[in-house]
């Protein structure tokens, strides 16, 4: 017989995951035709990045967030697949999308956030503080400002813990990482922007 928490509800089923989030800059200012192109390309960019990094589809779930995506990947996936293969493939995908489009309003500027943490999964999807923190990383004003300063079409922000794990295994060169203060709503933390992952 299944055990229940003291309040009578089923206990949370928590697992550790890698989290990837994206946000298409200026999405709401695009017309609907451009939005369709941008959404379609963003899914294809993620699919190709997973293929390049040898991340099996069965080990990750992608959720549509309108102007962005949330991908939750099993922690069995090694960080060496993410740094740098997945990121480099996504950057190349944004460049290819922009190179083949004549209309400037259909060109993509994509922010990506990476984090890791424990989540609960149920029939409705995933929930937990890790998802909330990922959203705060994407919305960090300092991250947006730095991306705009560089005129970048693609930029990556990595949570502090994930950055330090990857850097300690020499998967990230500290010389390409810039500290970013994340001050969004109740969140006050430090993250790292991978400056070499911004492409024009």
Which SSEs are present, and which pair or pack?
Elements: E1 14-24, H1 32-52, E2 60-64, E3 69-74, H2 79-99, E4 110-122, E5 125-127, H3 129-139, H4 141-150, E6 154-159, H5 160-168, E7 177-184, E8 187-194
Parallel strand pairs: 4-6
Antiparallel strand pairs: 1-3, 1-4, 2-3, 4-5, 6-8, 7-8
Helix pairs in contact: 1-2
Write a structural description.
By secondary structure, this protein is of the alpha+beta class. The chain has one domain (15-197): 2-Layer Sandwich (Alpha-Beta Plaits). 36% of the residues lie in helices and 30% in strands. The chain contains five helices and eight strands. It has helices spanning 32-52, 79-99, 129-139, 141-150, 160-168, and strands at 14-24, 60-64, 69-74, 110-122, 125-127, 154-159, 177-184, 187-194. Strands 1, 2, 3, 4, 5, 6, 7 and 8 form an eight-stranded mixed β-sheet that branches. Strand 7 and strand 8 form a beta hairpin. Helix 1 runs antiparallel to helix 2 (79-99). The longest helix is centred in the first third of the chain and has 21 residues, at 32-52.
- Let me know the number of strands: 8
What is the assigned CATH homologous superfamily?
Answer: Nucleotide cyclase, GGDEF domain
- Work out the helicity level: 25-40%
Low-confidence stretches: none
**Oligomer classification:** single chain
N-to-C SSE series? EHEEHEEHHEHEE
Overall CATH architecture: 2-Layer Sandwich
* Distance, first to last CA: 58 Å
- Provide the CATH topology: Alpha-Beta Plaits
Shape: globular
The major sheet is characterized as: 8 strands, mixed
Organism: Actinomadura rubrisoli
Protein name: Guanylate cyclase domain-containing protein
InterPro entries: Nucleotide_cyclase (IPR029787)
């Amino acid at each position: 017989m299944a055990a229940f928490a003291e309040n009578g509800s089923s206990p949370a089923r928590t697992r550790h995951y890698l989290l990837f989030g994206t946000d298409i800059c200026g999405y709401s200012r695009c017309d609907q035709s451009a939005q369709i192109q941008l959404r379609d390309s963003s899914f294809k960019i993620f699919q190709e990045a997973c293929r390049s990094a040898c991340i099996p589809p069965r080990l990750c779930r992608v959720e549509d967030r309108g102007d962005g995506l949330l991908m939750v990947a099993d922690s069995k996936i090694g960080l060496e697949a993410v740094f740098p293969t997945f990121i480099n493939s996504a950057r190349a995908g944004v460049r290819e999308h922009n190179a083949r489009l004549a209309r400037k309003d259909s060109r993509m500027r994509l922010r990506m956030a990476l984090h890791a943490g424990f989540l609960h999964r149920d029939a409705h999807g995933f929930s937990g503080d890790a998802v909330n923190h990922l959203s705060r990383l994407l919305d960090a004003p300092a991250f947006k400002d730095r991306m705009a300063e560089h005129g970048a079409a693609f930029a990556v922000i990595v949570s502090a813990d994930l950055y330090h794990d990857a850097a300690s295994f020499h998967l990230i060169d500290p010389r390409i990482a810039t500290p970013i203060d994340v001050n969004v709503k109740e969140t006050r933390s430090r993250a790292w922007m991978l400056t070499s992952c911004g492409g024009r």
